[in-house]
Design brief:
By secondary structure, the chain is mainly alpha-helical. The protein has a single domain, classed as F1F0 ATP synthase subunit C (F1FO ATP Synthase), CATH 1.20.20.10. Helix 2 runs antiparallel to helix 3. The longest helix has 28 residues. The protein is elongated, with a radius of gyration of 19 Å.
Length: 78
C-alpha cells in the first residue's frame, strides 16, 4: 500500500515532466519549419511573401499539438 500512495503523490510531478517532454515535439517542428522558410527565402527572395503565409499556417497547426498536450490532463481522470 505504501507504493501506491507514493505513486499517487508523484502523479503531479510526472504530469509536469510529461508535458515538458510533449512540448519538445512542437519546438522541434517550429525550428525546422522556420529554418526551412528562411532557407527558401534566401534561395528565392521573390517567394518570401508566399512562404511566410504558409509558415504562419504551419505554425498554427504545430501549436495545436502543444495546446492538446497542455489540455489533455484536464480531461483525463486522475
Amino acid at each position: 500500500m505504501a507504493d501506491v500512495t507514493t505513486l499517487a503523490e508523484m502523479g503531479g510531478n510526472l504530469n509536469t515532466i510529461g508535458y515538458g517532454l510533449a512540448a519538445i515535439g512542437p519546438a522541434i517542428g517550429l525550428g525546422i519549419l522556420i529554418g526551412k522558410v528562411v532557407e527558401g527565402t534566401a534561395r528565392q527572395p521573390e517567394m518570401a511573401g508566399r512562404l511566410q503565409g504558409l509558415m504562419w499556417i504551419g505554425i498554427g497547426l504545430i501549436e495545436v499539438l502543444a495546446l492538446i498536450g497542455i489540455a489533455t490532463p484536464f480531461f483525463l481522470p486522475s
